[in-house]
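Table S2 (text version). Query chain:
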Amino acid sequence: MRTTTIGDVKVLLPNLDPDDLDTRTDLDGDLTEALVEGAAWRGAQLADVSIRSSLITGVDLGESTWEAGSLFSCEVTRTDFSGATLTGIAIERCAITGSRFTGTRFTDVRLKDVLFEGCRLDYATFHCVAAAGSVAFTNCTLSNGEWSSCRLPRIALRSCDLAGLEWDACHLDGADLRGSRLHGLRAPLDNLRGVTLGEDQLPDFTQLTVAALHLTVRSD
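Corresponding structure-token output:
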């Protein structure tokens, strides 16, 4: 069993051997135990497609649409989901590394034992995204995105850029934000109830509080 720990969050990860996988370049229906490298699937239309126990590297899925499927026990590396729309899918026991989700739309997505590491999620939107288990983002860029009506308690957001990220009606109780850039984060204070911060983040949190409460700070 392969695991990684980010802060207090332990994530169960896939343990795949490339020698046990079949090389594939097409995406016609479900994929199981596949090795996919450098495939051009840009603009793909996926409906109820399941990808399981696969290694996906350098694949172009930009502007694709994926509805009501699943990504289970997969390693996804340097893959481009920019501008994609992911709706009603489940992502479980996956390690997603160095991948691009700029402008990606996540709607009604369920996450369980998922690690995003070194990924770009700038301008991405999360709507009704829920964590059913351990979820961690580390060294990711989440700037200028929008998260609304998400239930992501106890997730780890470690050493991430949250500048300009907007949270609205999100439940993040117990989330670990240590090491992340909070300057410019836009969120009602209720969305930050119960999160964990580092002492070095308190000045940015103070600025966030002043802005949220429309306080006037005077020096005289």
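Notes on Table S2: The CA atoms of residues 19 and 62 lie 28 Å apart. Residues 2-212 form a domain with the Pectate Lyase C-like fold (CATH 2.160.20.80).
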